[in-house]
Design a protein that fits this description.
Layout: E1 11-18, H1 22-33, E2 38-41, H2 52-55, E3 59-63, H3 66-76, E4 78-80, E5 83-84, H4 88-106, E6 117-118, E7 130-134, H5 138-152, E8 157-158, E9 163-168, E10 174-183, E11 186-200, H6 209-215, E12 222-223, H7 232-239, E13 244-245, E14 250-256, E15 265-266, E16 292-295, H8 317-321, E17 336-340, H9 342-346, H10 371-376, E18 380-382, H11 385-392, H12 396-412, E19 433-445, E20 448-449, E21 456-458, E22 464-470, H13 486-504
Parallel strand pairs: 1-2, 1-11, 2-8, 11-22, 12-19
Antiparallel strand pairs: 3-7, 4-5, 6-7, 9-10, 10-11, 13-20, 14-15, 14-19, 16-17, 17-19, 18-19, 21-22
Helix pairs in contact: 1-5, 1-13, 3-4, 4-13, 11-12
Length: about 500
């Protein structure tokens, strides 16, 4: 939006940052350390500030060398026919910065657990040169560290001040932000001058239903992160002529979503640790063994269920859920159903506890024995398979046949239909039986304003929009295939890139 003549500014800084999540804090700290005066605008109240970073698992993807990182990501984003999801120059600079992400934190007092987990997609070149490290305290620990870091740098954060418009001069350069500051019960228009640049780090569009309907490959898609991500940065960037990319891409898998709670839950299909430092190793302790299958709306299995919970390729399962039946005009796998028996119910809470609303942030206190969620109707239970089928509206004969066949495979130790590993073949035969709906979804979207290797936001001609940068999942560099730990990695890599370049700009 063109700034009106004679506009009176309410606040000013060299660099204004929209969004105080992982990318925003890193960009702010980097710009401040480069000598810039920085101001951060944040949509959420300080007392209930939850970001996707704080709700994540705290994992960072770390290449051991730049070439390995480049080779891995280029192979992952080669769409064929000479087309890449992501420009090679962007991949190169991502690798250069990702190599040093861990050291960047350690130099400022952050710490990581020693265990190195393998990257997803072992079939990619240079896979062995990448590892994932977990920040001490996982996502919540990371969020607290970043909160303390921005305070230590004396960077002001204006909470409850959602940005609404980018302000430009006559040449189209972004020179500031218009925001709606909430003061008690009143809303005040606030105009912030940014003499060098504005950096957008305000997340994706996980909670904008219209955007998800029009941009995603399947609808509905549900997410496990903050409800504050409603596509604000996308609309602001489009208003000043930004190009968009990766709008149909998501960091996605399958989730549990219930109508009376706004945030989805990642499922722990088998309790205990999900990741292993060894590729393909079973991470299930003997005491946590339990049987389960996934069935579609017709009561039939459709995949090797182990792939829904292990790395690799957990984050590609979303695309299998997106199968569309052009004859019946339905997505037969939306929803799907997680079918289990009393063994899994007795083993504790169904959602994962390392991230999401039932994780350390404590947005939802899931009962230890699942009884509260059974009472709510989130978990459907029955004494027989036929009764369960009736309650979830799948054909009883088909579901009975599916489980009888699966239990026979468990006895024989082999799954001829989908090749599920013998170590994961446990029967589903101990009533009461349980079922939960599974939906396509995950932690976050990836689409937004297209950026270049300097983190500059580009217009539809591929030229930088002067004075405008972005970082994090808002216009993420990742394409169709998301690799686990990639989002936090990008938040820090491109947060640093955006902060450095914005601070270098000449004041206008």
């Amino acid at each position: 939006m063109l700034a009106p003549r004679g506009l009176k500014w309410d606040a000013s800084a060299d660099v204004a940052i929209v969004g105080c999540g992982g990318a925003g804090v890193v960009a702010a700290v980097t710009a401040r350390e480069a000598g810039a005066d920085v101001l951060v605008l944040e949509k959420q109240p300080e007392r209930s500030h939850h970001t996707n970073t704080s709700m994540a698992g705290g994992l960072f993807l770390t290449p051991s060398d730049v070439k390995g990182g480049v080779d891995y990501l280029e192979a992952l984003y080669d769409a064929g026919h000479g087309m890449l999801w992501t420009d090679k120059e962007i991949i190169r600079v991502w690798a250069e910065y990702a190599v040093d992400n861990k050291r960047w934190f350690e130099a400022r007092g952050g710490s990581f657990l020693d265990t190195a987990y393998p990257a997803e997609y072992p079939e990619m070149p240079a896979h062995k040169t990448l590892a994932r490290y977990r920040f001490r305290g996982a996502g919540l620990g990371l969020g607290k560290f970043l909160s303390e870091l921005i305070k230590a740098k004396n960077i002001p954060v204006m909470y409850e001040t959602p940005a609404a418009k980018l302000l430009t001069d006559l040449e189209g350069r972004v020179i500031g932000v218009e925001a709606d500051q909430r003061l008690d019960s009143e809303v005040k228009k606030l105009r912030v001058r940014a003499s060098k640049a504005v950096i957008l780090t305000c997340g994706g569009f996980e909670y904008d239903e219209r955007m998800k309907l029009h941009y995603h490959k399947v609808y509905p898609t549900y997410f496990t992160g903050t409800t504050a991500n409603t596509g604000d940065g996308i609309r602001m960037a489009m208003d000043v002529g930004a190009d968009l990319w990766h709008m149909n891409c998501v960091a996605a898998q399958v989730v549990m979503k219930f109508p009376d709670f706004p945030v989805a839950f990642a499922a722990a299909f088998v309790p205990g640790p999900r990741l292993s430092p060894l590729p393909d190793a079973s991470t299930v302790r003997p005491q946590d063994q339990c049987g389960y299958v996934f069935v579609d709306r017709d009561g039939k299995r459709f995949a090797d269920e182990r792939r829904f919970r292990t790395d690799p390729p957990r984050h590609a399962i979303y695309y299998e859920m997106a199968l569309y039946d052009g004859r019946r005009l339905v997505y037969p796998r939306v929803p799907s159903y997680w079918i289990f028996d009393s063994r899994r119910i007795d083993l504790g809470p169904l959602p994962g506890r390392h991230s999401g609303p039932a994780g350390p942030t404590g947005l939802y206190d899931w009962s230890k024995d699942n009884s509260r969620e059974i009472e709510k109707g989130w978990i459907v239970t029955a004494n027989t398979v036929r009764e369960l089928a009736g309650k979830i509206n799948v054909p009883p004969d088909v579901l009975e046949d599916t489980l009888l066949k699966f239990n026979r495979y468990c006895e024989k130790g082999a799954d001829p239909d989908f090749g599920r590993h013998s170590s994961d073949l446990m029967p589903v035969d101990k009533p009461p039986y349980g079922a939960v709906k599974l939906w396509p979804g995950g932690p976050n979207t990836q689409g937004g304003p297209r950026r270049n290797a300097k983190a500059e936001v580009l217009n539809c001609d591929g030229d930088p929009i002067a004075g405008l940068y972005s970082a994090g999942e808002l216009g993420s560099i990742y394409g169709m295939l998301y690799t686990g730990a990639g989002n936090l990695t990008e938040c820090v890599a491109f947060g640093r890139i955006a902060g450095e370049n914005a601070a270098r700009g000449e004041a206008q």
